[in-house]
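Q: My labmate handed me this sequence with no annotations at all. I'd like to see what the chain might look like in three dimensions before we decide whether it's worth expressing. Could you predict it?
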Amino acid sequence: MTKLRDLEIGSRGRVTSVDTSNDIGVRLLEMGVTPGAELTLLGKAPWGDPLEYEVRGYRLSLRRTEAARVQIELLT
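A: Here is what I predict for the chain of 76 residues:
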């Protein structure tokens, strides 16, 4: 398994789990980052943080620390 923060630009992944041990993980679920959701990395800020994803038809920016809470499987 891979973490969401490790995707390359243009790569896709499907969420397998989210670490919900604190409020950040719960907030990710509320924003649609749920098991089974597919995400595509659209871009990175110049220093690599934040990261911009497409999920469920909208764009979502996450910090690398937030994206590290999400486990994904890579899609081709």
